[in-house]
Design goal:
Low-confidence stretches: 186-195, 223-227
Distance between the termini: 35 Å
Helix content: 40-55%
Structural class: alpha+beta
CATH class of the domain at 53-193: Alpha Beta
Radius of gyration: 39 Å
Oligomer: single chain
CATH architecture of the domain at 53-193: Roll
């Protein structure tokens, strides 16, 4: 006798199909979203080498100290006069891969610029100031005027200084950022962009940059949330199909067998309804 003709076997097959249909998607979801990731990533609760940074003020006293350091650095390393004196106020990033002899010979990673004396060490604004452990790091934008007849324009440079454990400020980064106005080709030529105008220009740019950044952040957050919701639609759809398909098959088999049983009993009853002899 066929298994499908047995009511108990049909019920067992239906329950087994439902269980498999529910268990398989759940197992797949568990395996899919329980990936531990790259073992080299910082997955633990603490990271031994990480030191949290915090924003700290850049006091007037510190500004004067940095002004003197920048003045000395520009007068030596940037202008390329007595560059050996800049070795002691240069940070490890600037001196990386260089020997003292190479530095003294002018082989240093600082682009030379014929800075005018009165432009040494002035900055238009402080870009950041933070502490990492006992190390205080400050980023400033330095504004320089060129010497007359030098052929150079006024220049701004991104500079990073930090205070070492010995309480000395060191210049760890120097990179020209932008040139302003015509080049100095005569004694009467002066840079037309002053520090005040430069501050106003950066204030306008900073204000204009905040709005797109905020809009992009909101858009990115919405897109990210929308993508996450779309990912859940696929496994939910698979789970729904895994449940509905076995139920549909089970109901169809049950209805067909029930109909066959009714027909059998009806025919059996008709056969036994003849007259008695």
């Amino acid at each position: 006798m066929s298994i499908l003709h047995s009511y108990r076997w049909r019920r067992r097959i239906a329950f087994t199909a439902i269980g498999v249909g529910v268990a398989v998607p759940l197992i797949w979801l568990g395996v899919r979203y329980s990936d531990p990731g790259n073992p080299e990533n910082a997955n633990g609760p603490t990271v031994a080498d990480y030191v949290q940074t915090r924003n700290v003020p850049f006091t007037p006293v510190q500004r004067r100290q940095v002004h003197q350091v920048l003045k000395q650095f520009i007068a030596t390393a940037v202008v390329r006069q007595n560059v050996a004196k800049a070795w002691d106020i240069a940070g490890p990033t600037l001196k990386e891969g260089l020997t003292r002899r190479q530095w003294d010979n002018g082989n240093l990673p600082v682009i030379p610029y014929p800075a005018l004396d009165k432009g040494w060490g002035n900055w238009s604004f402080v870009q950041y100031s933070y502490a990492e452990g006992k190390k205080h790091t400050v980023g400033v934008e330095v504004f320089l005027f060129p010497k007359p007849k030098s052929g150079w324009s006024a220049m701004t440079a991104d500079v990073e200084v930090f205070k070492n454990p010995k309480k000395h400020w060191l210049v760890d980064y120097w990179m020209p950022k932008r040139f302003h106005g015509p080049p100095a080709v005569a004694n009467t030529t002066k840079a037309k962009v002053t520090a005040k105008k430069l501050r106003e220009r950066h204030a306008v740019k900073a204000k204009a940059a905040k709005t797109p950044a905020k809009t992009d952040a909101i858009t990115a957050t919405q897109d990210k949330a929308r993508v996450r919701g779309a990912w859940w639609a696929l496994p939910l759809g698979i789970l729904g199909l895994a449940i509905l398909i076995p139920l549909t098959i089970g109901m169809f088999v049950w209805y067909r067998n029930r109909k066959a049983e009714r027909a059998y009993f009806r025919s059996a009853g008709d056969g036994n309804s003849g007259p008695d002899t």
